[in-house]
């Protein structure tokens, strides 16, 4: 008997970095949806036009005719704007992040695929004191899915700090096929093996996440994927930054302006490094502190979390400190791509379009890790059970 293909449909597809990660784990995309034509342009430059459908996720009538009926996995990296300071913490009811409700309607039309994968920022844990996390979890449970949730940081794979919250859902019709430790529908802390398992790895499941999971009752329940924290990346930031003299380095006036914008602590760190004989590479973000714009540096070999270029403070700056000079430049789209683990991704459109696409995306090797360590064992268990029953 031929094995069912590991097919998936992706929503809020962006430029396609979820797809790139899942393809590396052996999955095949048969449908992709987003409503941003600029991201569509970047997506199709890499993957072609066959599967991408440009449409608002709430326009179900238009989408139904194109959505496949045989997907094994549906993914959603739904908008994070309203789950952060940038969106004034409006939560999943906000204008942007509420798009996740459109995804929930779509999985009904997809026939409730066996597996779901959702991703968003860690602000989901604190948004409305955790009520947004609870509401989303309960809606997924009401749709028939048992859930696991964990936090995964891109820094385990690339030199970028980018923690994200992931949900993995397994439909109730398949949960018995999977060898997971599961919770009861009702339970209290410390009374079952599930609770001890989710607490044993605070890197993947920090205390706040475990607390929310353990106190959120689902129509289905929770399960625990027994995975260990990935080993830290061996690459450092300096390996991914272009240092050639032909780069668009700032002039001395702009460099001094940003040096003067540093607090005493950050300026002292730059001064200390300049006294050393070696070259030091770091990054700068401009942030508002007590009514003043500050240039904040880090030299720990890891870039800050890449963002979309909405305003000057959102774009990351490269700083290179040498004994005889200090250089600064804007981080380039090529460097953004490398920091997302998408080194060979084609660059199309204007610079800001490219930065927006990568800054609003996921880390490719993080998705590949989830595919290999969590999604593949799930689908293999489901397929094995299906072959035995037939």
From TrEMBL:
InterPro entries in alphabetical order: C5-MTase, C5_MeTfrase, SAM-dependent_MTases_sf
Protein's GO biological process: DNA restriction-modification system; methylation
Active site per database record: 80
Enzyme Commission code: 2.1.1.37
Catalytic activity: a 2'-deoxycytidine in DNA + S-adenosyl-L-methionine = a 5-methyl-2'-deoxycytidine in DNA + S-adenosyl-L-homocysteine + H(+)
Keyword Transcription set for record: no
Keywords: Methyltransferase, Restriction system, S-adenosyl-L-methionine, Transferase
Listed GO MF terms: DNA (cytosine-5-)-methyltransferase activity
Domain of life: Bacteria
Gene3D superfamilies per UniProt: Vaccinia Virus protein VP39
Family the entry assigns: Belongs to the class I-like SAM-binding methyltransferase superfamily. C5-methyltransferase family.
NCBIfam families in UniProt: dcm
Listed name of the protein: DNA (cytosine-5-)-methyltransferase
Organism: Neorhodopirellula pilleata
Encoding gene, per UniProt annotation: hpaIIM
């Amino acid at each position: 008997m031929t094995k069912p293909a590991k097919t998936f449909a992706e929503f809020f597809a962006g430029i396609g970095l979820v797809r790139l990660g899942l393809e590396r784990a052996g999955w095949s995309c048969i449908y992709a949806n987003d409503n941003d034509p600029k991201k569509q342009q970047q997506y199709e430059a890499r993957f072609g036009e066959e599967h991408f459908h440009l449409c608002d996720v709430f326009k179900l009538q238009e989408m139904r005719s194109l959505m496949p009926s045989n997907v094994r996995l549906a993914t959603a990296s739904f908008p994070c704007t309203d789950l952060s300071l940038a969106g004034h913490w409006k939560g999943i009811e906000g204008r942007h992040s509420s798009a996740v409700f459109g995804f929930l309607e779509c999985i009904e039309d997809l026939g409730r695929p066996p597996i779901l994968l959702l991703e968003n920022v860690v602000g989901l844990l604190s948004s409305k004191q955790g009520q947004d996390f609870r509401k989303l979890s309960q809606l997924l449970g009401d749709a028939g899915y048992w859930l696991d949730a964990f936090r995964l940081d891109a820094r385990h794979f690339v030199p970028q700090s980018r923690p994200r919250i992931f949900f993995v859902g397994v439909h109730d019709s398949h949960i018995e096929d999977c060898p997971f430790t599961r919770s009861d529908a009702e339970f209290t802390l410390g009374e079952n093996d599930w609770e001890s398992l989710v607490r044993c790895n605070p890197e993947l499941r920090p205390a706040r996440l475990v607390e929310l999971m353990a106190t959120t009752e689902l129509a289905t329940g929770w399960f625990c994927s027994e995975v260990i924290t990935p080993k830290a990346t061996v690459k450092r930031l300096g390996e991914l930054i272009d240092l050639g003299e032909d780069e668009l380095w700032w002039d001395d006036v702009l460099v001094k302006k940003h040096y003067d914008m540093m607090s005493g602590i950050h300026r002292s760190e730059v001064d200390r490094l300049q006294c050393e004989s070696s070259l030091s590479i770091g990054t700068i973000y401009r942030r508002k502190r007590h009514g003043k714009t500050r240039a904040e540096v880090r030299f720990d070999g890891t870039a800050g979390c890449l963002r979309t270029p909405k305003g000057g403070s959102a774009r990351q700056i490269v700083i290179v400190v040498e004994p005889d000079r200090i250089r600064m430049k804007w981080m380039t789209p090529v460097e953004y791509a490398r920091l997302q683990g998408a080194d060979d991704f084609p660059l199309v459109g204007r610079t800001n379009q490219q930065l927006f696409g990568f800054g609003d995306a996921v880390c490719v090797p993080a998705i590949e890790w989830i595919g290999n360590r969590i999604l593949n064992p799930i689908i293999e268990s489901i397929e094995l059970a299906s072959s035995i029953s037939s």
